[in-house]
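Supplementary Text 2. Reproducibility record for the structural model of the 73-residue chain.

All settings were left at their defaults, and a single model was retained for analysis rather than an ensemble. We include the record here because the model underlies the residue-level annotations in Supplementary Table 4.
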Amino acid sequence: YFGAQTPIVFGWVFASHQLGAAVAAAGAGWLRDLQGDYDLAFYLAAGLCGVAALLCLSVRTPTAEQGAGLGVA
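Retained model, structure tokens:
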């Protein structure tokens, strides 16, 4: 989908994933200290997974015009 830009796109995807994982780990620990258990952290994580799944449904295959020059037919 991204042609020559694929490595850059994957770099940003993985970097944002790592940043999110770090924030989630620290946030879960903070919520555990605040409430005494991880319940809210798990509920929030489940909700964010649901949002991510819905966002994945919005991804469309590029048309021939959009893919011109990127190796997508």
